[in-house]
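just leaving the lab so this will be short. what follows is a protein written twice so to speak, once as letters and once as structure tokens for the fold. can you read through it and tell me how you think this chain folds. anything you notice is useful, everything is just below:
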Amino acid sequence: MAANLRKYKYEASSHTRPSAAAGRSPENGASQMANPKANMDSTAIKADILASLRRDISTNITQEIKNALADNFASLKRDLQDVKNEINNSTVAILAELDQVKSDVKLVSDGLSVWSDEMVVMQGTVTSLKKEVHELKNKCEDLEGRMSRGNIRIIGVAETQGSSTPEAVSSLLKEVLRLGREVRVDRSYHSLTQRRPGDAPRAIIAKLNSEGDAADILRRARKGKLQYKGNPIAIFPDYTASIAKARAAFTEVRKMLHNKPGIRYGILYPARFRVSHNNTEKEFVDAADAMSYVKENILQSREEGDMRRYSPKHTWFPTQGCGESLNGR
């Protein structure tokens, strides 16, 4: 650019000097104005100078931008390379952890498979043990019940000193039941429930020496109301807690059938409710089933007047709890 300027400067000075000298004469001025070539050269020079300036400025600006961007690009490239390296390192670590997770999942899956097989075996074992425990429980209850076959439970006797001794119980049974002999009592005691002031007397549990004596006493006790020293008493079999609870579940059914003509019912040992009606006998171990049967097949038919004539040939089943000894307990 400087070289061009110098060139144009030299050319311009060579043209301007004669014109300046001639400017002092009217003739030379007229000849300059008459020469259009000089004006065209001046316009071309200006255009050339402007173009050169534009090129130089554009070149300088472009170079400055390139220099600035080169530094930024280098920094950006380094940053991108660092990010790439970090991503690569993180990817390697993630892949390693993923492999570890896969390995752990496989171990857990294998363990679950083994545990599932063991659970199947264990469930079979538990089912077998439940069945065995249920059988053992029934056997224990049956054994306990058989051991107490010679026991009786006396309710309503006032608690005094010596009222529960074997001698006192033997004398009580002889007096109340009008027995012609003394009943041998092996042992007797009050029930172990705690008695508070004002509570009813506790029951006397007596173990008789003979099961036959127990059956005879229970049979006599069913015949009527018993009195001892002016107080009403009652004599029942001595059942275990579970059997007594199971038998008590049939109380509502027995109340519904009480004093209903043509119906025979009773509870057999240990807790089986048997009912006879219209030449049909049914036996239940579940109180709800017995209640449904009685409502739907006995009481409803009686209300509708569809009951057939009762057959007197049916066997009588005792309604009192003391009758199990007569039914092959």
